[in-house]
Amino acid sequence: DTGVSQDPRHKITKRGQNVTFRCDPISEHNRLYWYRQTLGQGPEFLTYFQNEAQLEKSRLLSDRFSAERPKGSFSTLEIQRTEQGDSAMYLCASSLGGGGEQYFGPGTRLTVT
Amino acid sequence: GENVEQHPSTLSVQEGDSAVIKCTYSDSASNYFPWYKQELGKRPQLIIDIRSNVGEKKDQRIAVTLNKTAKHFSLHITETQPEDSAVYFCAASSGSARQLTFGSGTQLTVLP
């Protein structure tokens, strides 16, 4: 499968724990985006990378969230001290350049109990 | 920032009929408008897109129209089939990140 992949697909964690998600974009895509989707809503932009540089962060991304893309390939999104409000689907998308089509991964569904 | 409104939120049509979903956007700098189809538990899947230098684009049974002056764009699905049943999201690309701002989605149900 040459599409965007994400791991894990599901994560259940207790409030206060830290979690980390991984995204592997389409190999030639230099842009990588993270979105969050809650039930019944469209995805909301969190942050994006061009190659290894994180260039923009949404106001939604509190200081408990951190994202990296160390070698310009895969990316990780970490949430520290999880809260119940963090429960959502975390989607990763990649594109070739700005303005290109964004292709989404299957998402990681996070449940915070 | 950009704001995208989408309606209707739910739409039921008989198989073979047409379906139309409409979106409006606020940022005149937005220049790329994709549509995604999302089935339950699946990833959003790009089905068609349009750029601001084009007024209409068609791909088999689906078409998208864009009115830049009025800041609205629409998805048209003809000859609907039960497998078209899904949630459809419109989006607009803006900002230096070219991030997508999504509408709230339309649950399309095609009745056999």
Please provide a written account of the structure.
The complex is a heterodimer of chains A (113) and B (112). The N and C termini of chain A lie far apart (33 Å). By secondary structure, chain A is an all-beta fold. In chain A, the strands form two sheets. In chain A, strands 2, 4, 5, 6, 9, 10 and 11 form a seven-stranded mixed β-sheet that branches. Chain A has a four-stranded antiparallel β-sheet with strand order 1-3-8-7, with no helix packed on it. With 112 residues, chain B is mostly beta strands. In chain B, the strands form two sheets. In chain B, strands 2, 4, 5, 9, 10 and 11 form a six-stranded mixed β-sheet that branches. A five-stranded antiparallel β-sheet of chain B has the order 1-3-8-7-6, with no helix packed on it. Chain B is globular. The mean pLDDT of chain B is 94. Classes of the chains: A mainly beta (113), B mainly beta (112). Chains A and B meet through strand 4, strand 5, strand 9 and strand 10 of A and strand 4, strand 5, strand 9 and strand 10 of B.
Low-confidence stretches of chain A: none
Order of helices and strands of chain B: EEEEEEEEEEE
Largest sheet of chain B: 6 strands, mixed
Oligomer: heterodimer
Q: Which pair of chains has the greatest number of interface residues, and how are they split between the two chains?
A: A-B, 26 and 25 residues
Low-confidence stretches of chain B: none
Average pLDDT level of chain A: 94
